[in-house]
Amino acid sequence: MKKQLIKTRFAPSPSGFIHMGNARTALFSALLSRRERGVFVLRIEDTDQERSREEFVHAVQEDLWWLSLQWQEGPVVGGEQGPYRQSERAIVYDRYFDQLSKNDQVYPCFCSTQELNLARKIQVSSGQPPRYNGKCARLTTAEIDEKIARGLQPTLRFRVPAQQAIEFDDLVRGKQSFKSEEIGDFIIRRADGTTAFFFCNAVDDALMGVTQVLRGEDHLTNTPRQLLILDALGMEKPQYGHISLIVGHDGSPLSKRHGSRSIRELREQGYLPDAVTNYLARLGHHYENEAYMDIDQLAANFDVTHLGRSPARYDAHQLLHWQHQALARASLSDVWEWMGNAVHDLVPEDQRADFIEAIRPNIGFPEHALRWAHIVYSDPLLLNDQAREIVAGAGKHFFTYALQSIGGHAQDFKAFSKAVGQLSGVKGKELFLPLRVALTGESGGPEMARLMPLMGEERIRARLEACLVD
User: 124-164: per-residue pLDDT in tens?
Assistant: First the structure.
């Protein structure tokens, strides 16, 4: 028997830059299809024209490519089930609206927003779940025609079967069961003629052959509605898996106050894509291997049974950990490009590799690289108050000895510091700290054995001489 082709999808609404929750959903979906050598689909759900913007359509594609989440069907690459923008699929949806209408499985609803809000308030106050009360479900053809003749624009509601249990096995949460009487007839086409999420999302998954849908647990209650739609249309149903939401340190939904940023913001700040994917892949998903992995290794070890049901807590320190891990493994050319033009303007071409290897263990972002480029290559070196105190504490005699020792040792910090120690009688921290501060202005940082050869004897002498001036 031929194995079924696994097909997953990511279906964002282009109303903003994708945030960490969106990106994690896309990542899990892409890892699942990649592991099974299946197909990953990108579909743009832009039926809400008021909120959808073209810049976000382009942005989501750029962000996915940056994360190495290439799709095999969707915008740009095409596919047999296109178009892959819902705003271009109205004729498809109309065909299935007609099918439901012919089978009396939908009906026009003329209830105003005010009427609906009032009905919900009454239901909630009486302890009932808020759902549509079916007021328009029994309108006659004459009543419908009369309302339309008066210019009223109806929504289209799906007629939910009575006394029916909707059950499915969730890939993450196991057996799920919902009662149809607690759902209520729901809108599948808005009054302006645009298609509602419940309908187009489900229909497109079926038409595009999606086999597994991974999405946030906030969509769990949407699933019974979509299963009803697919049953009514006689369409294949995907397996649904509802992953835990990401929360902040206080357990509340993740937001900017917890340090959350969009993928675009992370990229602009200088995070590397592998750092983001290694972090997100472990946010609500357990890997036996806690080591850094590339995208293929993350996919090979991904398992939907390892997706947790409890909320996943965002931890900025863990994200930073993976940033350092990714930076440590990046190629010299990639790190050089990542550092940016401002660093390129300061670092001599013949010292690029040595500069990178000198500072790589001590930086996390391009701004840190720029800071060390200024420290190594810009003159004069400006000392802060703490650095001045350390220099003053060492005394002018100390730096006189340092100047006497630099000849022949400008490329060798170990030999240089040993010579200074022999002349001054100073050792340990009292020896190394003043030398580091005099040459870098900092009490910590990259190894001096790597930094000193980059500075050159002339710059080193100038900085030591500056310590002799009051």
Answer: 888 777 889 889 999 999 999 999 999 999 999 999 999 99
Return the structure tokens found at 349.
């071409």
Cα–Cα dist 441/455, whole Å:
13
Report the C-alpha gap between 133 and 129 in whole angstroms: 11
Chain centroid to Cα 191, Å, comes to 34
First to last CA, the chain: 87
Q: Is 261 exposed, middle or buried (0-12, 13-18, 19+ CB in 10 A)?
A: middle
Which residues touch 312 (CB under 8 Å, ≥6 apart)? 244, 245, 246, 247, 283, 284
Report which residue type is found at 314.
Y
Please give the Cα distance from 355 to 364 (Å, whole number).
15
Residue 102's pLDDT is what? Answer: 97
pLDDT of residue 251: 86
Helices (H), 285-412: 295-300, 316-329, 332-339, 341-346, 352-359, 366-377, 385-394, 396-405
pLDDT of residue 87: 95
